[in-house]
Design goal:
Layout lengths: L7 H17 L5 H8 L5 H13 L3 E2 L8 E2 L1 H11 L7 H13 L4 H16 L2 E5 L2 E2 L4 E8 L4 E8 L4 E7 L6 H15 L4 H5 L7 H19 L5 E4 L1 H4 L3 H4 L5 H9 L1 H12 L9 E4 L11 E10 L3 E10 L4 H23 L10
Antiparallel strand pairs: 1-2, 3-8, 3-11, 4-11, 5-6, 6-7, 9-10, 10-11
Helix pairs in contact: 1-3, 1-4, 2-3, 5-14, 6-14
Length: 356
């Protein structure tokens, strides 16, 4: 529908009906609107406008004597044209920021903390993925003598990813010699990606060239691996919403898409794209005709991190009648905190010049 289809009063009524249904989970009657919001129109006039909104596909009536409910199209119109974000109170922002400040040096805590905060503050189920570099970048290598010719190779990538591999040398080497070889590679490779490291292989003596080949293999494995674990919080609370208790919300399908990693990764990839749009908010309503498992749900999703360098995804899932304004502002705020942590973790020196 075009925006011109709605008069100012019809747009106001649609906004109020969405807000009232979000609050009550019940059909909204014309008399309720007139009395609750002190409208300067009679219930009959409001009913006529509601009938017009129904004709346009923004409302529907469960049965003749009931009030009206928003359709997916009605929610979409509300989200795109009528919704107002509800800024989190300053005290709440400070409380959340302090929690992340306490966890800033422990990346393993970021995702469970973000999921917990999002679920608690929005009342929906939260999901968060770990940040992942678009290209693996070398940070540090250690070579540790164990016994005989066996050596433990420990590769640390920018952002904290650690890879370990046991290898057997052609002949035993002292720990001093191993440390000197690792130091030479660290001086040469720090901050480089796999393609850049390849250009230096011809400069290296045989042992260090072999070590560099192993490093390249580990870096390429990281780049080819799928997104790390997806952290959830609040799924059981979401299933207590009336839509799911009454059996109309297809909870089995919802659980399947949330718990099967490949399905959820497919949704995230399709909705958000692979790496771009950091900070851009996407709102998926009723599965958008593509995911039947989400027919009774809405998802608010975004990417955090540093665009085209290292990003993760986060968002909330709730019933279609979720409080969009509050949920969007909460997701946006938590994403901004995680983006700051990613920037600090990777370090300004590791970022593209445009990001410094």
């Amino acid at each position: 529908m075009e925006p011109s289809d709605l008069s100012p009063r019809q747009a106001l009524l649609l906004k109020l009906i969405v807000q009232e249904h979000i609050r009550t989970a019940a059909p909204v009657a014309s008399r309720t609107l007139v009395e609750q919001y002190q409208l300067e129109a009679s219930p009959a006039t409001v009913r006529n406008d509601m009938a017009r909104l129904e004709e346009l596909g923004y409302l529907w009536q469960p049965h003749t004597s009931a009030g009206r409910l928003p359709t997916v199209a009605g929610y979409r119109y509300f989200v795109e044209r009528l919704m107002q974000e509800q800024e989190l109170p300053v005290t709440e922002q400070r409380m959340i920021a302090h929690q992340f400040y306490q966890a800033q040096h422990d990346m393993d805590q970021w995702m469970p903390l973000a999921a917990s905060v999002l679920a608690r503050r929005t009342g929906g189920a939260a999901l968060v993925t770990a940040p992942r570099a678009v290209q693996a970048s070398y940070k540090h290598l250690e070579l540790i003598a164990t016994h005989g010719r066996a050596v433990l190779l420990v590769l640390v990538l920018q952002g904290g990813t650690v890879n370990q591999q046991m290898l057997a040398l052609p002949e035993p080497m002292t720990q001093t010699a191993l440390s000197e070889a690792a130091d030479r590679l660290n001086q040469l490779f720090t901050g480089l990606n796999a393609e850049q490291i390849k250009t230096h292989l011809h400069e290296l003596p045989a042992l260090e060239a072999d070590l560099a080949e192993l490093v390249l293999g580990l870096m390429q494995q990281v780049e080819a691996s799928p997104t790390a674990e997806i952290y959830h919080h609040g799924v059981s609370e979401l299933l207590q919403e009336p839509e799911f208790i009454e059996g109309e919300g297809r909870p089995v399908g919802l659980l399947r898409i949330l718990e099967e990693r490949s399905l959820l990764q497919g949704v995230l990839s399709d909705v958000l794209g692979p790496v771009a749009n950091v900070g851009g908010m996407r709102i998926l309503i009723g599965g958008e005709g593509r995911w039947d498992e989400l027919r009774a749900c809405s998802m608010i999703l975004t990417r955090y991190g540093v665009a085209n360098y290292a990003t993760g995804a986060l968002g909330v899932v709730g019933p279609i009648r979720m409080a969009y304004g509050h949920a969007v502002s909460t997701v946006r705020f938590v994403a901004s905190l995680l983006s700051e942590l990613v920037y600090d973790m990777y370090g300004p020196e590791a970022l593209p010049a445009s990001k410094k």
